[in-house]
Amino acid sequence: MKVSVVRIGNSKGIRIPQAVLKACQITDAVDLKVEGRRLILTPTGGGVRRGWREAAERMTALGDDELLIPDVFEGDLELEW
How far apart are CA 60 and CA 67, in angstroms? Predict the structure, then answer.
């Protein structure tokens, strides 16, 4: 696909068609990487829980994964939240 480079203020940019944005799941930001004469765009989105698995694994490895609030309440079970 060929796209034009356009002036944006003192910079230049390209317009990415909506179909391409949707297919690549690009919503608002991308990581930009230069390899030789190629530009590689990678979506930074991916969901609100991106990175949670790695963070949980690090917490477990450090022993920092104890519950802050008990998962079973004793006493008055009719407590309204």
Answer: 12
